[in-house]
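Per reviewer request, we include the raw input and output of the structure prediction for the construct analysed in the revised manuscript.
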Amino acid sequence: QDGEQSLSDLAGRLKTALSDDLLSIVLYGSAARGDRVEGAGDLNVIVVLREIDLRLLGKASAINKDWEKAGNRALLFFSPWWIAHSCDVFPLEFLDILEARRVLHGEDPFAGLTVSRDNLRLQCESEIKTRLIQLRTGYLEYHDEAGQLARLLAASYSPLAALCRGILRLTGESPPQKAADAV
C-alpha cells in the first residue's frame, strides 16, 4: 500500500475512533521533507488530542498496532498543552517538525509556535554523546559480526541526520531537505 493511501486510511480510522477528541493529524519527518523512499514504510505521524488520557489511547491502540505492523514508527500522541510545554525540552525535534510537516487533518497545532534555540546546543551535545555511547556499546557486542555492525550503523543514520540539521541551525545555516545533504 503506498504512503498516501496509508495516510488516508490512518486518518479515517483515527477520525472514527477518536471523533471530537481528535484535533489534528500531522505528518512529519522525511516524508514531509520529500526525502522519503517510497515503499520504505517509516511514516512519522503526530496525533493531537484535546487531552491525553488512557481512555483515548485505548481507543487508538489497535490502530497504532496496525500502523507499526506496516513498518511505521509508533504514532505520537500530543495535546496542545503538551506541545506548548515541551518545546524547551525537545528543541531539535520541534525545529524539525516546524520546518517539515504536513497537516493531514484539522488545524496546524504547530502554527505560530516559537522554539527557543537556547537549549538546542545542549540537546545536540547530549544526543551526540548518547549516540556515541550506543555505537561503542554496539561495537563491543557485535565487533566480529559485520552484518550486525552494518545494521547498527544503518539504524544510526536517521538520528545522525537530525543531529546534523540541529548543528547546522546552531551555526546559523538552514539545513537542507535531504538527509544526505545535511550529513
